[in-house]
Amino acid sequence: MTVSSTLRIRRAVEADAKDMSDTYFDAFDDTVICMRCFPLEGPTTKPWFEKFLLEGMRGEAAKVWVVVDTALPGPEGRESEGKVVAFAKWVGPRSEGVPKEDEGGDEPCPPGGDMDLAREFFKAMHEAHVDIMGGERHWFLSLIGTRKEAQGRGAAGMLIREGLRHADEAGLRCFLDATQKGKPIYKRFGFREVRCMTFADESVRQDCMVREPQGNR
Questions:
Q1: 216 domain residue, yes or no
Q2: What is the 3-state secondary structure (H, E, C) of 5-34?
Q3: What is the pLDDT tens value at each position of the chain, 217 positions in all?
Q4: What's the CATH number where 55 sits?
Q5: Does the residue 71 lie in any domain?
Q6: Which of 41, 77, 194, 196 is most buried (most C-beta within 10 Å)?
Q7: Has this prediction a pTM greater than 0.90?
Q8: Which domain holds residue 147?
Q9: Structural domains in the chain (count)
């Protein structure tokens, strides 16, 4: 896929949290998990999610990148930087393997969200991650999202390649869990499905995928 000439990738800063949150909801507002666990009509949903993103950026081994479109104005006061159209949170190797906090905690979604579904979903995905990767050092694509207006322009590929570059340089495997929409993209980058998970009466399907380290891409 050809990357649009106006797209640039850079490390995320904390001031990007709101734009990253807006990007997430633009990308996933039609999915069951988003609609039920992170309902946009809830007044606390976006502030909760922005705080979640900020805490994630500060986590051990977290590497967060954004893709900006320089042809579009950025937020007020930063217009010349371009508009954030995609972001990804990668997590590098950690000393203790997969930390328990990745499970989502006691309140893995904001008030007003479907707490039972959120607990079931995030706990099961965490347990699958631990079961598949164990204490192995690896890179984990924790979260990625692209605004609908930028989909198909190469933004997601830029973010995926950035994490894969680090993993390949270290000779480490990568892990992620994929929606059905995202799965074909990850396959193009060498990920293979190792486990399928279903939730909400099988209306949600998430696939655990693993990629072996490769040479230069």
A1: no
A2: CCEEEEECCHHHHHHHHHHHHHHHCCCHHH
A3: 667 799 999 999 999 999 999 999 999 999 999 999 999 998 999 999 999 999 999 987 999 999 999 999 999 998 899 999 999 999 999 866 675 556 556 789 999 999 999 999 999 999 999 999 988 999 999 999 999 999 999 999 999 999 999 999 999 999 999 999 999 999 999 999 999 999 999 899 999 999 999 975 4
A4: 3.40.630.30
A5: yes
A6: 194
A7: yes
A8: 7-211
A9: 1
